[in-house]
Amino acid sequence: MRSAIGSRRSWSRLTRVAPLILSALPAAAAPALDGPFTERQAERGQAIYNDHCAECHRPDLTGALGSSLIDGAFKRSWAGKPVSDLRTWIKANMPPNAPDTLPDDQLDPIVALILMKNGVAPGQTPLGKANAGGLFPEE
């Protein structure tokens, strides 16, 4: 019986002290949990993706000739990195037969689609070069 009472006291102390301890920790960069993209932009991205990317990466992003854009390996390679890095990489390297040819008005919806398919919820602001600084979500 005594241990149960002692446990309640310890729990009570912990619940009072934990917020103070957590508030003293340094803040980490915020992950891109609510996109810097809109749902409409990601939907538009599907049509553009189908024209430029689906031949190699499949319409469902699971990969074929090109790698999957939604599997664990893809998520691990981008987890915690700025979305701007992914955007820059796609712009510089894709499509492989014509790298650095996608204009921003096509690139941003494709990146929005990739984010949405990787579990990032759409937000209120369309994705663009200026607001792609959020982090790709951790797996």
Provide the fold topology.
Elements (H helix, E strand, L loop, with lengths): L1 H23 L14 H14 L1 H4 L14 H7 L4 H11 L10 H14 L22
Descriptive labels:
mainly alpha, 6 helices, disordered N terminus, 139 residues
Short description:
With 139 residues, the chain is mainly alpha-helical. The protein has helices spanning 2-24, 39-52, 54-57, 72-78, 83-93, 104-117. It has 6 helices and no strands.
Report what the structure shows.
With 139 residues, this protein is mainly α. The chain is built from 6 helices and no strands. The chain has helices at 2-24, 39-52, 54-57, 72-78, 83-93, 104-117. Helix 2 (39-52) packs across helix 6. The radius of gyration is 21 Å and the shape is globular. The model is unreliable at 1-8, 10-15 and 17-33 (pLDDT under 50).
